[in-house]
Amino acid sequence: MGATIYSLSITMPSEAQELTRGLRRRDPDLLDRLIEQYDYRLFRYLLSLTGNRETAEDLFQETWIRVLERGHQYNGKWKFGTWLFTIARNLFVDSLRRKNPAATALDDADENSTLSNLPSSDAPSPFDLQTRREESDRVARAVDRLSPTYREVLVLRFQEDLDLSEISAVVSAPLSTVKARLYRGMGALREMLEGGQA
Amino acid sequence: MTKDLHERAAELAAAARVEGISTADREWLDAHLQSCAACQEFSNATERAIRSLHLVSVQVDPALVDRTRRAVHRRASELRAPQSQLIPLWMSCALSWVLGGLTLPLVWQGIEWLRRYVDMPSPVGVLFLVVWWALPTLGVAAFLGANRSQGADER
After folding, report:
1. CB distance B45–A164 less than 8 Å?
2. Which helix (H) or strand (E) holds A103?
3. Is the dihedral of CA B79, B63, A31, A86 positive or negative?
4. Shortest CA distance to B42 belongs to which of B65, B19, B14?
5. B108-124: pLDDT as tens digits
């Protein structure tokens, strides 16, 4: 309950200032609350980037350490979530470069990465559960087959509800590029789902 | 209807989800979708594709969250430690400088005596005095330098 109240209030301007001050102070209690508030969203985003649970877990931890270390750089210009995703993405790109020094972008991410092993969400009845699980698996397979660049923007836009300028900031790409990726990604996903290729 | 109209409908149906469309475009699209089954199906398929993204759920391992919290607290302690270590260091420096100032006449007399005793030239005596004054600063600089390089190694 307390966390819920905090998560609602953290978006208010005065609380945003408090967030900025807390990050500058490297307040570990504030970090605890932020981890609780953003754990699901950050992990889902990292999974969409990496397509690999183990890598996503490593990056999850690294991201929060980086938030602690670089908290003084957060100026409230963007929502905290946007800044958090930007950090996570930069760490992912860095890890790609470490593995493959020639890699410069998400396009170089493992195209064979998979989300298919993701568990489905809870359902009220066994029948619904089974139906949802099958549908979730089908969608996950379709999402797997998307290019990581498309998968990333689709997740940010339709799962994280980020607006286009925020996505542009996170992926460090012009607005026009973000839009183009969204349209192409949406088209590709639609074709996979409707065409039964998943 | 011409092909252009269907293309426009498809573009607007996608744009409505990605970036939003104007009221006039929305009205035109709604009217078109009511009279065109193919475009209606395209729009529905787009909507289903977007909704399907919400079907993919993930589970965050609580152990991962706990590990992360512990790691963050540990790192926060590491980052705070050097700052708290610096407080007694600077206090020692200040005390050293104050004592250095108070004992300056005595030190100078001692250096003068030593200079006469071993028959040193006067500039050497001054040099001794400067080194005496600079010792605390040099000590602090050496300590900070060692601390910084240790921190870099740990990272």
Report:
1. no
2. none
3. positive
4. B14
5. 888 888 888 887 777 87
Burial A23-37 (b: 16+ CB within 10 A, else e): beebbbebbbbbbeb
Q: String of b and e for A80-95 (b: at least 16 CB within 10 Å)?
A: bbbbbbbbbbebbbeb
What's the CA gap between A3 and A23, in Å, rounded? 18
Judge if pTM exceeds 0.90: no
Question: CB–CB of A28/A64 below 8 Å?
Answer: no
Does the structure's ipTM exceed the value 0.85? no
> How many residues would you count in chain A?
198
Q: Which two tokens stand for residue A48?
A: 């969409």
Mutate to test the interface with A, among B44, B68, B74, B75 (most CBs of A within 10 A): B68
Six-digit token string for B146: 């060692």
pLDDT tens for A75-107 read 888 889 999 999 999 999 999 888 776 655 555
- B147 close to B82: Cβ distance less than 8 angstroms: yes
Which residues neighbour B75 within 8 Å (Cβ) at sequence distance 6 or greater?
A65, A68, A69
Closest residue by Cα to residue A43 from A155, A133, A122:
A155
Q: Which two tokens stand for residue A15?
A: 């609380």
Cβ <8 Å between A194 and B48: yes
